[in-house]
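Service request form, structural biology core

Requester: graduate student, group of Dr. S.
Request type: structure prediction, single chain
Budget code: on file
Notes: please return the result as structure tokens.

Sequence provided:
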Amino acid sequence: MSSEPPSSSTATNNDPAAPQWRQQPKRGCFSSFTRLLFLVILLTGLLLPFTPFAGKIKKGIQDIVESARSTKERIITRDVMRDVIKEVPVVKEVTKEVIREVQPPLPDKYIARKDIDVASLFNGITVKTNLLTEQGSFASLERLDPESYKAEFQLSIRVPKANQTMVELSRINKHLPALLPELNAMLPAAKVSGFYHKLYENKTSRVQNDLTRLNRILDRHNYYDTETILELTHPTTQRRTLLIQSEMDVVADGSDGDRMPTLSEYIYLSDYYQPFTSYAWAKTTKNPNPLLAKWEERLKKAQDEFAQKGLGAARNRELNAIISTLKIEISEMKARSSLIAEKDPFVVISLLFRGYGDQNKFTPQIGDYAAVIHEGKIYPAICGDYGPSFKMGEASLLMAKTVNPKATPYIRPESDLKVTYLIFPGTAEKERSAPDLAKWREKCQTLLGEIGGIGSGYVLHTWDEPFKKPETPPATSAPSPAATADGTPPPTTPPAITPPAIVPAPTPTVTPVAPSTPKKSSSAKATPSKSGSTKSKSTQKKGA
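Core staff response, request fulfilled:
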């Protein structure tokens, strides 16, 4: 055994009676530094409010708080803006307005009418009218019956029915069966056109309107101006044709400075003359329209009167309308050329056809080719102008004079319903140009061939070129003098035979009545007629 005493550590751990403070461990340097720092901060916080730095510190803290608040508000504002954009999007809406005129459907049969109209005249009198219609016979027969179109206190009209069979058509023109051999093959499937019923509806409405207001109403002759309008289709070629049986009135409209630099005063001073036709094309030369100077003179006269002071309001309105119309017409004269009724063969189609091209395939248009049949003759033409919506059967002055040489702008060539108009819808050329009569005839010949052709013994008329330049005769050289037997030329003729050419004309050739001729022509303004003779205006009016 060892005799060494136990160590102090051993004695401390094993001795229960040893003091407790000796058992606590020693603290490190970091712990002491932490305590010291805490005491310093605590003392600084207690003493800082009593120092000059307290106000600056307080202001800095407030700035930090305010800055934090403003930052938070901006964030909230952006969130709100974002929500609004999502909930209420901005939509840009574009509306395109398309205005399209829609025509009412065409009637397919006759509909009886019973109309009542009440109007007040300018003097305060109230007028009440009754219009009654009923189905009648053919227009050519109703025209002869005074009871078909009569006026009493109420106006009673028998609306005619349309021809449909070959017997009915040949009653008007006995040449039709032979002139158009395959017309009879097309008639079984033919349909009375809705334009026929529309035409007589327009006529009846016009009568109703004019009768109520005591205007001049249509007479019996002009009411019954159409015998039938048939829509024909050839069974083999499917060529569509509109057949109109009517009379022939005269139109004298149109002018073209490129082809005809002068125009007869008798023509453009006739009633209802218009310098234009619906068929027109751009001018090709610098030749002025023959009526341009007259129209400019009218415009200046109207403008001078309009500039005067003291005119009434009604006259001012009238002059303003005249000036506007003349300006438009003068501009048209300078830019475009039209058909000339005196020189070009064309027919006039009713305005009731306009607007139905999309609805009815038989609707004729301006420029469509046409063939006009009168008695046993057939003439090529085109649809060159529009006429009133209540009227049918009208052709150019050239066509009218060819049918009847007595025709004038005031005298129709055919008053009976003996004229057959065959119109080929959809055949107009895409580009319009000056008339080419040879081409027109060739095209009409082809189209007639597509509905069976022309019968034996009948020929499509050939129009003479109205503006054909005269052919210059070939230059004739003087005959060479005959040589003598020995080969030498004969002696020249002495100049003694030429004196008669330079001797003054004998006295009888100077007509003594020459001075009086100008006086006679100045007293009555003469106008050249178709044959080249002259006729005074008073004589023309009397004859018309």
